[in-house]
Amino acid sequence: MFRIVHKQRLSEDVKRVDLYAPEIARRFEPGQFVSVVPEEQDERLPLSIVDADTDRGTITLMINEVGTTTRKLGGMAIREEVYSVVGPLGLPARVETPKTVLCVATGIGTARMLPICRAFKRGGSKVIGILGARTKKEVILEAQMRLVCDKLMIATQDGSYERRGLATDIVQPLLRENRNDPKGLVVRASGSVGMMREVCALAKEEKVPARVYLNPVMVDGLGMCGSCRVKVGGKIVMACLHGPEFNGHKVDFQDFERRLKTLGGKESCPRKESVDNRRKSGFGIFGRFLGDILRPSP
Ligand code: FES
Description:
By secondary structure, the protein is α/β, with parallel strands linked by helices. It has 10 helices and 16 strands. It has helices at about 20-25, 70-75, 110-120, 140-150, 165-180, 195-205, 240, 255-265, 270-280, 285-295, and strands at about 1-10, 15-20, 35, 45-55, 60-65, 80, 85-90, 100-105, 125-135, 150-155, 165, 185-190, 210-215, 230, 235-240, 245.
């Protein structure tokens, strides 16, 4: 039912996959994601929706092939069907327009950022995009970002493309240059934890609001398992239900980073065998829920 209709390699590890999912395409709003299971026994992968085409009934996803299940999905052929796609999940991004907005993204975070830049642009905002990558080969979606940004700046750590350095090196001068913009300046950041934390710190110094897109480990994507809990403004919230976008000045990045390290793994789910065992035990989703809430908090 969820057929792959298009596939394209964007970099060594990142592939674009278009899936036929008309109902999701119709309901999608920027900032939302889907939970994808490639084959029945696989774990769920939370993947940002980069674009939706309601005429063709398709959604566009970016897959960062960093583990078994993402590689399996990336290896599926055009016309093959994935087992399940649930969504759109999460709250839509907050797009206050018109503003001047600095959109900072690194790595696969660019996939989350693109629809948000597009929404700001459609609302009449001035969009300044900043992309960071280790090398030129890792810069993704550059052409699409150029289409939706009034200005796009790129930093590569090895200096192989545009300016040498980090995305955050570009942020401070741009904040100073635009902080008195009559439309009002806002910041959005999506990518590595270190980058988002630093961008928020720089924005705070200039008293500029900043929102970030968190990508914690997610299991069910439905608010039942607790795996995606994050601390925001001193409260525990679920990224899959209350996010994934949050006020960056309120996110506890230290706690977020610690949980990411503790839960480990670059994919979304706990070990496959634990899921299989719970299925075999007949508990189903309630078993998984109980297992997760009973597991000691790391
Ligand atoms: Fe959010 Fe389970 S993934 S509560």
